[in-house]
Specification:
Strand order of the largest sheet: 7-4-10-9
CATH class of the largest domain: Alpha Beta
Strand content: 35-45%
CATH topology of the largest domain: Nucleoside Triphosphate Pyrophosphohydrolase
Distance between the termini: 28 Å
Largest sheet: 4 strands, mixed
Shape: globular
Order of helices and strands: EEEEEEEHEEEEEHH
Number of domains: 2
C-alpha cells in the first residue's frame, strides 16, 4: 500500500448526473477540501469493472484479438475482455469473455492484477487474468456490436507488436506484462 501520510481525502458534498452513455455515466461532483479552503467541481466517469484476460496455449502462444474500436477509429490488437456482469465474479467474467470472444477455454485461470484505469476520472477497476492451457473449444459467440478475429502469436511477436506500436492499448500491455510474469513463475514450479 502506498504511503499517504499528510494526504487527506476530500469530502464529497453533492453528485449530479450529467449523461448516461449506456456503458458508463458521467456525473459532476462537488467536493470540499479537507483544510476548508474551498469547494470544487469535478467530472467523474462511473463505469462497471471489467476484465482483460491473456490466454496462453499449451504451446506457449498468446491468443490475441483484432477488433475495430470506435474511440480510436482503428482496428486494435488487444486481449479478450469485457464488462463484468452485475453480481458476476471477475474470474467467472474472464472465463466467459475468453469463451465468447475467442471460442477458447482454459485449464487454469489465474488473477494477475487489479488496476484503476484512470483514477483522475474513473472510479472502476480493471481485473487482469492469465488463462493457461487455452485451447479452441468452438466458435466465438460475439455480441451484435462486436466483430472480432482471434489469432495466436509468440511472446517474441507480442514484443515486436508492442515495440512497433501495433499493440498500443496501455491496459492491454499491462495485462500482457502481468501474464508474462505468471507464465514464467508457473514454468519454474
Amino acid at each position: 500500500m502506498a504511503d499517504l501520510k499528510g494526504v487527506t481525502p476530500w469530502r464529497r458534498l453533492d453528485q449530479k448526473p450529467v449523461v448516461d452513455c449506456r456503458i458508463f455515466r458521467i456525473v459532476e461532483e462537488t467536493c470540499a477540501r479537507p483544510d476548508g479552503a474551498g469547494q470544487f467541481g469535478f467530472y467523474v466517469i462511473l463505469a462497471d469493472d471489467w476484465v482483460n484476460v491473456v490466454p496462453v496455449t499449451p504451446q506457449g502462444k498468446v491468443v490475441l484479438i483484432r477488433q475495430w474500436r470506435a474511440g480510436s477509429d482503428e482496428v486494435a490488437i488487444e486481449v479478450p475482455g469485457g464488462i463484468i456482469d452485475p453480481g458476476e465474479d471477475p474470474q467467472d467474467s474472464a472465463s466467459r469473455e475468453l469463451d465468447e470472444e475467442t471460442g477458447y477455454r482454459c485449464r487454469k485461470m489465474i488473477r494477475t492484477g487489479r488496476l484503476r484505469p484512470n483514477p483522475a476520472l474513473q472510479r472502476n477497476f480493471l481485473h487482469t487474468f492469465v488463462a493457461l492451457d487455452a485451447t479452441p473449444d468452438g466458435p466465438p459467440r460475439l455480441e451484435e456490436r462486436e466483430a472480432i478475429e482471434s489469432f495466436e502469436a509468440t511472446w517474441d511477436e507480442v514484443d515486436a507488436m508492442i515495440a512497433s506500436g501495433a499493440i498500443d492499448h496501455a491496459l492491454v500491455i499491462n495485462a500482457l506484462e502481468f501474464a508474462r510474469r505468471v507464465v514464467a513463475r508457473e514454468a519454474r514450479s
